[in-house]
Design a protein that fits this description.
The protein has 2 domains: 121 residues, Cytochrome Bc1 Complex, Chain D, domain 2 (Orthogonal Bundle), CATH 1.10.760; 81 residues, Cytochrome Bc1 Complex, Chain D, domain 2. The protein is 52% helix and 0% strand. Helix 2 packs across helix 5, helix 4 packs across helix 5 and helix 9 packs across helix 10. Bound molecules: heme C (HEC) (2 copies). The site of one heme C has 24 residues, from helix 6, helix 7, helix 9 and helix 10.
Length: 214
């Protein structure tokens, strides 16, 4: 709590003296929040936060993921929303234990981004290095940051994937990679055809290819 008050006071000070610097601080937080939200939360809550993530239909949940664009959440401030994300009763819930994965400071950025979901002018567009960007946004939760197959959800879902840095990936044709990304595979590899354009699927596939270093 002390640290938060301190950060706020500091941000306020910076903002008062250097308006552009203050602006950059605020944007940075949302960017971090967006990256984490798209990597970890959008799978269940959807990229728009409405609770229709690509994983939602796969998991037979007792309760669907919350619609985070609902007034119930949007009317909260960052601190209260953070507490909801952290303080969730996890004993019999599919909502993962985020404190183990994302440090509180970053979880606060995620909470800030969730509150920005209903403010369309605050959405941040992707950049040119699309394949890598897409991979980091949509695939790392299972495939891991470096594509080795050790993502946090791989452990939770108990699934195995090919290590994209290993020789095994060279056994799979481009066509097959594109098909798997487009149509999905097995129980937990989601189909991306309604989420990514065919251009974006090609971009992310070539990024996967680039991870193999002979
Ligand atoms: C594996 C699926 C899954 C992922 C990933 C996931 N959630 Fe959830 N979340 C759920 C489900 C299911 C619920 C509703 C559970 C219930 O109400 O029993 C929920 C509920 C919530 C709630 C409402 C809690 C409340 O008390 O009303 C918030 C806020 C939330 N999630 C935020 C997040 C954030 C932020 C992330 C990413 C860091 C995230 N969720 C990732 C499945 C998920
Ligand atoms: C919810 C977890 C999950 C997410 C998210 C996910 N995958 Fe997968 N993926 C899997 C699993 C599990 C397999 C293995 C499926 C099988 O062989 O039965 C797989 C397989 C694949 C394969 C085939 C080669 C292999 O590793 O077996 C490719 C290529 C692939 N995924 C690409 C992607 C891309 C690109 C994204 C993001 C746009 C993505 N995946 C997101 C779980 C996931």
């Amino acid at each position: 709590m002390f640290r938060y008050t301190y950060t706020l006071a500091l941000a306020g000070l910076v903002f008062a003296q250097f308006i552009y610097a203050g602006d950059a601080v605020a944007k940075e937080n949302l960017l971090v929040g967006k990256r984490l939200f798209n990597s970890y939360c959008s799978l269940c809550h959807g990229e728009d936060g409405q609770g229709k993530g690509v994983l939602t239909a796969k998991l037979k949940l007792e309760k669907p993921p919350a619609n985070l664009t609902d007034d119930k959440y949007q009317s909260q401030n960052v601190e209260d929303l953070l507490r909801l994300i952290q303080g969730y009763n996890r004993d019999n819930s599919t909502m993962p234990d985020w404190e183990q994965v994302i440090p509180e400071r970053n979880l606060r950025n995620v909470a800030a981004y969730v509150l920005a979901l209903t403010q369309t002018d605050m959405r941040i567009r992707g950049d040119a290095r699309r394949g890598r960007e897409i991979f980091r946004q949509s695939c790392v939760a299972c495939h891991g940051y470096k594509g080795t197959g050790n993502g946090v959800l791989a452990k939770i879902l108990k699934v195995k994937m090919i290590n994209y840095g290993s020789k095994s990936i060279t056994q799979i044709s481009d066509k097959e990679i594109i098909k798997t990304i487009t149509e999905g595979k097995g129980e937990f590899m989601p189909p991306w055809k309604s989420t990514l354009s065919s251009e974006e699927i090609k971009d992310v596939a070539s990024y996967i290819r680039s991870l193999f270093k002979p």
